[in-house]
Amino acid sequence: MLNIDDTLLLSLQQQAKESPRRRAHRNIHGDLDEPVQRLLIAIEPDSYVRPHRHLEVAKWELFLVLKGRIAVLIFDNDGRIEQRVVLSPQGGQVGLEIPPGVWHGVVALESGSVFLEVKPGPYTPLIDRDFAAWAPHEGSAACVQFLQWFTDGERGSTVSI
Fold first, then answer.
1. Were both Cys, which of 48, 77, 154, 160 would link to 143 (CB 3.0–4.6 Å)?
2. Domains and CATH numbers, the chain
3. In angstroms, how far is CA 66 from the centroid of its own chain?
4. Is the pTM of this model over 0.70?
């Protein structure tokens, strides 16, 4: 049995703050071949998650925020923001399920943000066709501008990189 408590969440938050990628995760499922993947993810505001989609027909994703605030951005095929949903356990919306094939990205709006991600397994790593060609690669200089756009992004807006 795994207890999801303040000790575990604080540990993940600290790992994210110390990580070069500014995020950390903890698999709470056993084997990567399990039919349902479950992860706790701690993310800091300066962590860049490249927009991506899951092309498998049944590969939806569910996000539930446990601490802090995150924004989930939904994009069209050209990289325009179709929807920006702020998730927080302090009221309003706490979760969002993303259907298969939808371009999306996540940005932390508060330090110490932690969310639960649930999706069908087995685990399959993302490949080039799953990442948005209109978004910079993680670690590139354009990520800073792109991350600011994520944080401030409004429906219908695009960013030039």
1. 48
2. 6-152 (2.60.120.10)
3. 13
4. yes
